[in-house]
Amino acid sequence: NVRCTGESIEENGNEFYIRRCVEIARKAVGHTSPNPMVGCVIVKDGKIVGEGFHPKAGQPHAEVFALRDAGDLAANATAFVSLEPCNHYGRTPPCTEALIKAKVKKVVVGMVDPNPIVASTGVSRLRDAGIEVITGVEEELCRKLNEAYIHQMLTGKPFVTLRYSLSVDGDLSDQLGAEVMESGGYYSQLLQEYDAVVVSSFSLSTKYFLSSKEPGAKQPLQIVLAKSSGSLQLPTVSNDTSSRTIIFSNKEITLELEASQKGIETVVLDRMNLAAILEHCKRQGLCSVMLDLRGTTADFAEILQEGFEQNLFQKIIVEVLPILGASNKDPLKYMQQNRRLRNLTSRTLGESILLEGYF
Ligand code: AOF
Ligand code: ZN
Prior knowledge:
Mean pLDDT: 86
Bound molecules: ligand AOF, zinc ion
Oligomer: single chain
Order of helices and strands: HHEEHEHEHEHHEEHEEEHEHEHEEEEE
Distance between the termini: 56 Å
Largest sheet: 8 strands, mixed
Strand content: 25-35%
Helix content: 10-25%
Low-confidence stretches: none
């Protein structure tokens, strides 16, 4: 059980152990929603004597697993937790009581819990019990870990990321970079982080879903926008029930019957709009949504306008591809289409991204 690090907490620094909490919390990426990802380590004489993370909503919290792992060694030890220990009876009992009962001497907290039911009462309960508590260690890292959870807690709305790929000449592209789309790679991992992904046609994302055979794989809900029926080829639903799909369409296209025959849920809106899609996600308890501009991007035009006008996006992820001439757009319209560049490198300078590549 005892894993060696430095000689003492002072030597390693509180930050070291909170970073470890974040690292183990991420083992449950994609699985904890609507709960946050949380990691906990129990440290005695500089050594980690117990570790745990929250695996899934409904299951015990990180602190419970870490205390179990530490056993009797938890007495007089320091507990590090990436999120303030809860102090309420939810699906599970309060972690504050578990820490008090285990007789830990000190608790180091990455960030306080934005959940109004917790909101610093975890910290005060521990202090009232005579336990020393420090908060705000590696706070930025802890906040980034749960950016979607925090946003959802504070606003009651899903966290929305807008993602797209650009050619070097600045046009939207359907493509993903070779390394980005490697099986199980960056794009698969990105999909894993979101509760839902919005795309404009089928198979754009499903083929990148981590295979459900891979340990820890989770498929986001796939939301397909069907504004123009031409772009939509209904797939036969696989018997892999873990990849769910919903089609959002507007009144003009009638694919409901065909879709329902294939077992795909459809929602028909008077007018295609992002607010309605997000409301649907919210009602289903989905906390994070990625809008991926691939496929028939014209289908996204209104949604994008609405998203920007109403501030519905929280995050943007842009990939610049090593490709020149993805479109006919002026002033580069005479450029050879879809020309692949070599050795494209990028670096940031301040907040600008500088690209260099070769014909
Ligand atoms: C912790 N440690 O590992 C997590 C916490 O329904 P429950 O019992 O799972 O409670 C969910 C709430 O508990 C969640 O909204 C958040 O405020 C907190 N999550 N707290 O001490 C954990 N996952
Ligand atoms: Zn808890």
